[in-house]
Structures are given as structure tokens and as C-alpha cells.
Amino acid sequence: MIRKSATGVIVALAVIWGGGTWYTGTQIQPGVEKFIKDFNDAKKKGEHAYDMTLSYQNFDKGFFNSRFQMQMTFDNGAPDLNIKPGQKVVFDVDVEHGPLPITMLMHGNVIPALAAAKVNLVNNELTQPLFIAAKNKSPVEATLRFAFGGSFSTTLDVAPAEYGKFSFGEGQFTFNGDGSSLSNLDIEGKVEDIVLQLSPMNKVTAKSFTIDSLARLEEKKFPVGESESKFNQINIINHGEDVAQIDAFVAKTRLDRVKDKDYINVNLTYELDKLTKGNQQLGSGEWSLIAESIDPSAVRQFTGKRWAYLAVVLDLFARKPVGWAMSFSPDSRLTMKALEMAWETRGKPVGVMFHSDQGSHYTSRQFRQLLWRYRIRQSMSRRGNCWDNSPMERFFRSLKNEWVPATGYVSFSDAAHAITDYIVGYYSALRPHEYNGGLPPNESENRYWKKL
Prior knowledge:
Blueprint: H1 2-44, E1 52-61, E2 65-74, E3 88-97, H2 102-106, E4 115-121, H3 128-133, E5 140-146, E6 152-158, E7 161-163, E8 166-168, E9 171-177, E10 185-199, E11 202-218, E12 222-238, E13 241-257, E14 264-277, E15 280-294, H4 296-303, E16 309-315, E17 320-327, H5 332-345, E18 353-356, H6 360-363, H7 365-374, E19 377-380, H8 390-402, H9 412-427, H10 441-451
Parallel strand pairs: 18-19
Antiparallel strand pairs: 1-2, 2-3, 3-4, 4-5, 5-6, 6-9, 7-8, 8-10, 9-10, 10-11, 11-12, 12-13, 13-14, 14-15, 16-17
Helix pairs in contact: 5-7
């Protein structure tokens, strides 16, 4: 009787586990698609530092696990990172379905979870230097666990690598947080055997680097918490001999919100523990910086600013802007987007002329191929003669003088919306233009068509 009861319990548990595994497996692909949609929607709002598009491919759903590839494409590249337009970062993702992922069970973890995942970086044209630095091993591997309540835990394993004059040994970092990512985010990590080669005869080594941080974001805008970063057992070496040793160099940060106020207090502390030169101990030291009543919104506005570039296409008949685009990169893709919009807005005309200066984004092969495909003739200003393109120069002067604030915009998204408002709602619809006899571009065009 006892054996039958035990067998019944085991069978029941197997059925429950199997049903739970099937159900959680059905949630993986919709979850991936929602994450991608949210990421790409944020891109449209200008919330990313670079013009990136997220996608996935080769989704293979099994009973116990699902596999797919996640890829991030740099649409316009990232010149400051030497990333070309169209290059991708690709990850292999292997997701084990909950409620009891197999790998977690093997490690003795019986707490139910929505899923556990292994993420590996794929070796391609863009990431190949990372694999070379890690001696053809995967430079990073991540293990993620997602709880039903929205919390997550991530372990990031870092392979030993050598990047030019900088090298390090094995490392591991753990990240624990809730669904809002920055709220109650706990970070711990360690990297061993750090070497910075200053010259052929001089280098600095550290036995290890550790980080311990606990932070949260109050009301989605006030960062508070504390962190400690430490380099342990530092040696300064000249011609193979130890010149100086430091037991530890520690950097501490503490952020506290001012009670009932929209400000935070910042405390930065740097510690030098037991500096020794030769056989002489020089002691220890500490340096602190305290800043009170910091406005985090103002700090983000100041530190988050980057140059953004605007390309505009004018229809010279009434000086009306008919195409425009913005980007962090002043490349051919930017001007091509503006031309594509103008061509669509004007009903795909044939045999018109496009005039511009001799900038490389207008002389590039890609841009000229687009003109050829649209059957548009190209005209260019004489080198060094801005008057040949004076209508466009005048538009930008008006935009800067009449609309763009001297302090710039808080975000790329704010800039894009404000400039669109200027072009559509003010410049084209309301602003008098001397060329049109004092009429706005829209009104000038409308009167012309009524006469026909």
C-alpha cells in the first residue's frame, strides 16, 4: 500500500512538472518578442546611444528547452567604437523551461523558476578580436535565472584575456535584481591577476579586483545605494623589480536621497592601504569628496548630451522641407533616410534634380546609387562656395535662431520631436517666407495648385 501511494505521488509530481514545463515553454517565445519590441520601440524614441535594432532567429522550441539566436545590429555603425554600419553582435541562447529547470536541479536548487538560460557570444567579424584576446575561447558566458515574480539572477563568467597592454585572469560577476532592473540591483564580482604594461620595462599588477554594490532606483529617477571597488595587492614593477607595493586601493561611493526632497547627497571616498617602497612603509591615506543636494535629472541632462546630426531636403519651389532624418552618425545612411522620405512625400517623382554641397555623405557610392535608383539627377555646389546652397543654409540658420534652445535638448527623442514640430507645425504651416511673398510654404503651394 505504501509503495502504491509513493508511486502515485511520483506519478502525480511528474505530471505536474511536465504540465508546468509545457506551460512555461509556451511563454518563452512571446516573452522574447515582447522584449525585442520594447527594445526597438525605445530605439524609435531615441533612448539608445546608438542606432541599434534587436531581432531573433532560428527559434527551436522543445519540451524541456528552447534555443534561438539573438542579434543586435548597428544600423548606422558606431564610429567611436570602430563598428561599421550593419555589423552585428550575436548571442546563442539556450533556455531551460521551468518550473524546475534541469541545470538548477543538478546544482541542488529546487526553488521554482520561470526559466533558466545559458547565453554565449558568437564569434563573428565584429566579436572576433574578443575571441582572439581570450585565445579562441568564449570571452564571456552568462547564466540567467528568471523567477515567477519578475526577479532575476545572472552569473557572468569572464575568460582570461589579453587586450594589448592590458590583461587579466579568470573572473566572475553576479547580478541579482527585480523586474525593474535598476531597482534593488545587487552586484558582486571578482577578476584575478590584472596586469597593465606601461612600457617594456614598467608594469603595474594587482592580485585581484573586486566589486560589491547594492543600489536601487527610487521613484524611477533617484539612484541611491552604496558600492565598493577594490584592487588588492598592487605591485609597481620597474625592470623586473618591485618598486612599490600597495595592500589595497579602494573606491567607495554612497548615494542618499535627501528626505522629502528631489535631491541626493553623494559621498566619494578613496583609500590607499599600506603603501610600501622597498623596505620602508609610507603609511595609508584617505581622500573624500562630499556633494550635497545634487539634482539627478540635471546631472543626466548634462552628462547624457551628445552631438546629433540633422539632414533636411527642401523643395525649392516654395522652400518647403519635404524630408528629414536625425542620427548620432553623420554618414550616408542619414542623408539617404532624408532623401527616401522626400521621395515618398512628393509622390516618387522622376527626372527631378537633387542639389547639395560636396560632403562625403552626398558623394558616397551608396547615396549616388539611391539617386540612380530614383532616377534623380545630382547637382553639387562649387567647392568652398556656400552661396550655391544658400536656401539650405538659411533654413538651418532659422532653425537654430528660432527654435533650438541654447542649452540643447535633454534627449535625442526630445530633439527629434521638437524639430519635427518646427518643420511641420511652424516652418511649413505658419512661418512667413520672403521667397513666397510673405506666405508660408504650405499656403504658397496651395495657391499655386488652385490656379491650375
